[in-house]
TrEMBL record:
Belongs to the class V-like SAM-binding methyltransferase superfamily. SETD3 actin-histidine methyltransferase family. It comes from Labeo rohita. The keyword Iron does not apply. It is an enzyme of class 2 (transferase). This is protein-histidine N-methyltransferase. PANTHER family: ACTIN-HISTIDINE N-METHYLTRANSFERASE, UNCHARACTERIZED PUTATIVE METHYLTRANSFERASE. Residues 94-224 form the Rubisco LSMT substrate-binding domain. Keywords: Methyltransferase, S-adenosyl-L-methionine, Transferase. Residues 326-349 have a biased composition (Basic and acidic residues). InterPro entries: Rubisco_LSMT_subst-bd, Rubisco_LSMT_subst-bd_sf, SET_dom_sf, SETD3, SETD3_SETD6_MTase. Pfam families: Rubis-subs-bind. Residues 304-349 are annotated as: Disordered. Its EC number is 2.1.1.85.
Length: 349
C-alpha cells in the first residue's frame, strides 16, 4: 500500500496507480506538502523542504496524518507529530425536543447534526468547527431563537466558531464541561493507564510491533488527558466570569471585519473548514475516484499531493448526517481500504 501512488492518466480524465522510484523511498518529517504532478511534462515534481547537504537524507512531508494513520498505513509511529488527533463521534439526538432548532442553526453554519470530529494534540484541542458544534449542542431554546430569528441572526452564525464571541457564559461552561466529561469517559475505555503504558515501554524485550502499538495507545490517552485538563481549566475560567458578572462580549454588525481578519485566532467561515483528520475516508473505491476537474484542467496545476486530496493523501469523507450519534468513540480505520504514499526505510524510528 505504501508504494501505490495515485497519479493522473495521460489524458487527465482519471487517476491510476504508479511507482515513483526514489521519491517513494523518502521518509516523513514535519513540513508542508511540496509535491505535485505536472501534466504537461508528465512527471512528479517535488520541491525540497530545505537546503540539503551532500550525503544528507532527504525527507518529504506525508501530510497531516494522525499517528493512527501512520501506524496502520505506513508502519511507523512519528514521535513529533503536530497533527496527531483522536476521533470522536458527536451528534444531536433526534429525540431531543430542540433537535429541529439545533439542526437548523448547525445547517446554516455548514455543520451536520451528527458527524465525526477530532480532539487535537495542539492547544486548543478543538477546531473552530467543533467549537461551533458544541456551542449549538449546548444552547437553550432562547439562545437558539436568537441565532435563528434574532437581530443579525444570519451574521451571528459567523461568530459560532470564534472564541471572542461566546454565546453566553453559561453556554461556555456547559460545552467545556461536556468536553471534559466526554474525554474522561473515552479514557476509561482503555484497559491500561498512561502510567502502565510508560512502564511497558521501559521493557527491553518488547517487540517492535508491541512498542509501536503501546506508543500509539499512549499518545491517544495523552490527547484525551489534555482535553480533560483544558476542559476543566476553561470551565473554571468561564464560571469565574459568570460569578464576577463580567460583561459578555457582544457581537455587532461592525465586527464582521474582525471575523474575516486572517489574524483571527480561529477561522470562522465554517462552511469552508476541513477537519483534516476528522472524517477520514473509510471506503475508497479506486475505480470510482475522479479528481476535481479544476485540478486536471491546467497542465501546470500540481495534483499529486496537492489540491486534489484523493491523490496520495488521506482523503476525508464529507460529514454524514444519517443517524444521530449518542456516544463518543475512538474511530478505527480500515487498513484494507486506504492508499498512502510512503513507508519509511526504518520502520522502528
Amino acid at each position: 500500500m505504501t508504494r501505490q501512488n495515485q497519479i493522473p492518466t495521460a489524458d487527465g480524465s482519471r487517476v491510476t496507480l504508479a511507482l515513483i522510484p526514489l521519491w517513494d523511498m523518502c521518509n516523513h518529517t514535519n513540513g508542508l506538502i511540496t509535491t505535485g504532478y505536472n501534466l504537461e511534462d508528465d512527471r512528479c515534481e517535488c520541491v525540497a523542504l530545505k537546503d540539503y547537504k551532500e550525503g544528507e537524507q532527504i525527507y518529504i512531508f506525508y501530510g497531516t496524518r494522525s499517528n493512527a494513520e501512520f501506524v496502520i498505513h505506513n508502519g511507523f509511529f512519528f514521535e513529533d507529530n503536530a497533527h496527531d488527533r483522536v476521533k470522536i463521534k458527536l451528534g444531536v439526538s433526534k429525540s431531543e425536543r430542540l433537535y429541529a432548532m439545533k439542526a437548523e442553526v448547525l445547517a446554516r453554519a455548514g455543520i451536520p447534526a451528527s458527524s465525526i470530529f477530532a480532539l487535537h494534540c495542539s492547544e486548543p484541542p478543538i477546531s473552530a468547527q467543533l467549537l461551533a458544534f458544541l456551542r449549538v449542542f449546548c444552547m437553550t431554546e432562547e439562545e437558539l431563537r436568537d441565532y435563528l430569528v434574532g437581530d443579525h441572526a444570519i451574521n451571528k452564525i459567523f461568530t459560532l466558531g470564534n472564541t471572542e464571541f461566546p454565546v453566553s457564559w453559561e453556554n461556555e461552561i456547559k460545552l467545556w464541561t461536556f468536553l471534559e466529561t466526554r474525554a474522561a469517559l473515552l479514557l476509561k475505555t482503555y484497559k491500561t493507564t498512561s502510567e502502565e503504558d510508560r512502564s511497558m515501554l521501559e521493557k527491553p524485550d518488547l517487540s517492535l510491533h508491541s512498542r509501536i502499538a503501546i506508543k500509539l495507545r499512549l499518545a491517544e490517552k495523552e490527547i484525551l488527558e489534555r482535553a480533560v485538563s483544558c476542559g476543566q481549566a476553561k470551565r473554571l475560567h468561564f464560571q469565574k466570569q459568570l460569578d464576577e458578572g463580567a460583561p459578555l462580549p457582544l457581537y455587532e454588525e461592525s465586527d464582521i471585519a474582525l471575523l474575516e481578519n486572517a489574524d483571527a485566532k480561529l477561522p470562522i467561515i465554517l462552511r469552508k473548514l476541513e477537519e483534516e483528520d476528522e472524517r477520514v475516508q473509510e471506503e475508497m473505491n479506486l475505480a470510482q475516484i475522479k479528481p476535481d476537474a479544476a485540478c486536471l484542467d491546467s497542465s501546470k496545476t500540481p495534483v499529486l499531493n496537492g489540491q486534489c486530496k484523493d491523490l496520495n493523501g488521506t482523503q476525508e469523507d464529507p460529514p454524514g448526517s444519517n443517524a444521530a450519534v449518542k456516544e463518543s468513540e475512538v474511530e478505527k480505520s480500515d487498513p484494507s481500504t486506504k492508499r498512502t504514499e510512503d513507508e519509511p526505510k526504518d520502520v522502528g524510528k
